[in-house]
Each structure stands twice: as structure tokens, then as C-alpha cells.
């Protein structure tokens, strides 16, 4: 059975492009279109979509209010398809993710045939991923409670006793689908005096990185920035790689960018950064692999574990997509498997016991 998709878009041109792209896949059926959030809410019970694609800016009811209403009444996987990139509007897109949407995608524009094919394949792939999200209502309940632990949690495995001799000096986090929400859950509770640098690698559509950084900067007590070439990582700071560049550390521990080929289809790659952190920080590194499709990061987490560092994977119950963590667990790379609500607590506990 094809995936049932509802398109919510007030631009006739953008709607026509989206319809043409999605209609090209035999695995997708467009079951309805709406110009406003209000029209979409009326349609949802009738057409029963499996995935909703919505714009941010619309008359009468915008994408944020629509997302809030959908999540409160009949939760569905939501993909935000927005032209709000490369400006302050991109920060607002992430408020939809905070409200319950799963992922973001740039609004398709008329371009070259090669660009069109690339956008078409990426959009269809995202729709298929979102349609595969299971136990969605339960997962949203877990995510709605930002600081309280889930009803069922795995007890954290105590860090090895030898860790006392090797205090953590660097934290590296990797994520893909569902990652912005997971990063928010982990990073926003950390205090302004959190004593370690944190490197985050998030797979995200081109053009949305600065919006993600701006949104997290506004939500977190720690500064959030894109790592600068040649800069040493500083404590009390959260870093992201720039778009289309792998982020690594040189032998002296300074950031540098790499234009090497994508790894597992991704640039920046989680594995590339994790392997670099393992090489420079060894037993003083902590790697965390969060929700996401595919296998990027699994080999990198294994490298940190082999170097003697600590490794954590997000559990299946709280992952939007349990692909990347599952791959790491299958490799034996994850020393701890934790619900998302426990990971920030674990970070605070480790650093308090070793560094304060």
C-alpha cells in the first residue's frame, strides 16, 4: 500500500512542484492538499494521512499552530517543508520540531535537472523514513516531558572504575532524524558552567544548520557555535561542523575542516568526527550516538570504545528512528544504552564526580 501524504502549502507553485515530485513515486499517494492549517485539520480525519508535509508561513493558521493542534488531537509524523532557510526564519522552523514535527526539508524550487533529481530523491526518502516511524503517539508522550524520566528506563551502567584515572575532556554527539529534538533534551539542562567542550554532528538538510544553531543557542545556557578552522575547543561551549565539511581535530587538538568524500552518504559525518576525537582524546573522550537512519556513527563510536573512552547509545523506545544506535549496539560499541531523558543526567553525574 502506498504511503498516504497530506500536503499543506499555500503557494500554488510550491504545491505543484511537491505534487509532481511525490506523484513520481509509486510508493506515495497524495490523499489531500490544503492551503492553511485550518483546512488541513478539517481534512485529516477524512483522508487519514500517514505523513503530513507542512509549510511554516501560511494564512489563518501557520505551521506551528497546525503542528501543535495535530500533536494534541491525532498525532501524525510531520515533515516541515519550508523556504525559511539562510535567514532568521529558519530558527522558527525548529519551534515546529519542538512542538512535535519530526524533520525539516527545504522547499523545492525550480532548478537544473540534476538539482531536481537530487531534491526529489531526498524528499521521497524522507517521506518513507517518516512513514516508518512506529508507536508514534507513545513516543510523543515521552518527548513532551522535557526533564522528567520516561516511565520505563534502563538503569545506567556505572562507568568503569578506571575512569577515575582518566577524566573526560571531550564529549562528541552524533544524530540524524529526530536529532534536533534529542539534542535539545540533552543540551538544554546543562548549566552555564558545564566544564567540557561538546562537539555535535547533526545530519540536516542544507540551509538549516544556522537555524539549528540559533535555536539551540536561544534554548541552552551554553553558547552554541559553528567550529572555526584552527580553533581549540573551549570548555563550556557547544560546537557544530560547518555545512558540507567533515569536522576533525589535528594532532594538537585544533579544529580543521575536511573535504573528503561523504562517509555512509554524509558530509559532515559522525564517524569522521568520532574517530578524530578518539585519536586525540582517547580514554578521555565520551561518545554519544542518538536517533537516526542508517549506520553513520556506529564505526566512530566503536573507535571511541576501542580507544578506552566511554560510549552511550540512545535506546529504541525514545529514538524516532533506531537505525544508527542499533548499528552501534550490534557492533558492541555502546557501553550504555539509555533513554534520552537519562543522557543529560549521566553527563552531569560523570562530570560532577570527575571534574568538580
Radius of gyration: 20 Å
State the CATH superfamily name of the largest domain: Methylesterase CheB, C-terminal domain
Top-tier CATH class of the largest domain:
Alpha Beta
> How many distinct domains?
2
Query: Numbering strands along the chain, what is their spatial order in the largest sheet?
Result: 8-9-7-6-12-13-14
Secondary-structure element series: EHEHEHEHEHHEHEHEEEEHEHEHEH
Q: Give the % helix.
A: 25-40%
Structural class: alpha/beta
User: Which stretches are poorly predicted, pLDDT < 50 over at least 5 residues?
Assistant: 135-165
The coarse overall form would be elongated
Separation of termini? 56 Å
CATH architecture level-2 label of the largest domain: 3-Layer(aba) Sandwich
At CATH level 3, the topology of the largest domain is Rossmann fold
> Main β-sheet, in a few words?
7 strands, parallel
Estimate the strand proportion.
15-25%
By DSSP, the count of extended strands is: 14
Helix count? 12
Amino acid at each position: 500500500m502506498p504511503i498516504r501524504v497530506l500536503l499543506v502549502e499555500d503557494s500554488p507553485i510550491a504545491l505543484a512542484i511537491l505534487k509532481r515530485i511525490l506523484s513520481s513515486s509509486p510508493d506515495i499517494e497524495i490523499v489531500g492538499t490544503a492551503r492553511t492549517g485550518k483546512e488541513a485539520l478539517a481534512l485529516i480525519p477524512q483522508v487519514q494521512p500517514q505523513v503530513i508535509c507542512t509549510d511554516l508561513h501560511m494564512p489563518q493558521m501557520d505551521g506551528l499552530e497546525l503542528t501543535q493542534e495535530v500533536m494534541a488531537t491525532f498525532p501524525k509524523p510531520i515533515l516541515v517543508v519550508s523556504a525559511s532557510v539562510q535567514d532568521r526564519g529558519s530558527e522558527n522552523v525548529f519551534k515546529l520540531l519542538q512542538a512535535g514535527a519530526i524533520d525539516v526539508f527545504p522547499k523545492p524550487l525550480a532548478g537544473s535537472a540534476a538539482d531536481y533529481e537530487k531534491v526529489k530523491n531526498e524528499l521521497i526518502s524522507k517521506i518513507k523514513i517518516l512513514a516508518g516511524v512506529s508507536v508514534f503517539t507513545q513516543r510523543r508522550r515521552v518527548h513532551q516531558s522535557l526533564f522528567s524520566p520516561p516511565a520505563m528506563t534502563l538503569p545506567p551502567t556505572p562507568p568503569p572504575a578506571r575512569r577515575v584515572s582518566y577524566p573526560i575532556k571531550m564529549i562528541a554527539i552524533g544524530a540524524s532524524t529526530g536529532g534536533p529534538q534529542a539534542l535539545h533534551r540533552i543540551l538544554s539542562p546543562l548549566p552555564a558552567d558545564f566544564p567540557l567542550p561538546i562537539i555535535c554532528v547533526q545530519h540536516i538538510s542544507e540551509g538549516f544548520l544556522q537555524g539549528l544553531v540559533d535555536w539551540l543557542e536561544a534554548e541552552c545556557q551554553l553558547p552554541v557555535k559553528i567550529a572555526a578552522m584552527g580553533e581549540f575547543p573551549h570548555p563550556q561551549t557547544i560546537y557544530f561542523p560547518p555545512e558540507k565539511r567533515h569536522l576533525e581535530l589535528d594532532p594538537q587538538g585544533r579544529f580543521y575542516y575536511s573535504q573528503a568524500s561523504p562517509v555512509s552518504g554524509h558530509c559532515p559525518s559522525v564517524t569522521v568526527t568520532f574517530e578524530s576525537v578518539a585519536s586525540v582524546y582517547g580514554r578521555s573522550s565520551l561518545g554519544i550516538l542518538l536517533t537516526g537512519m542508517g549506520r553513520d556513527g556506529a564505526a566512530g563510536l566503536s573507535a571511541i570504545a576501542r580507544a578506552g573512552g566511554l560510549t552511550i547509545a540512545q535506546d529504541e523506545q525514545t529514538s524516532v528512528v533506531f537505525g544508527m544506535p542499533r548499528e552501534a549496539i550490534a557492533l558492541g560499541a555502546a557501553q550504555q544504552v539509555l533513554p534520552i531523558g537519562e543522557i543529560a543526567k549521566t553527563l552531569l553525574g560523570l562530570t560532577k564526580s570527575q571534574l568538580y
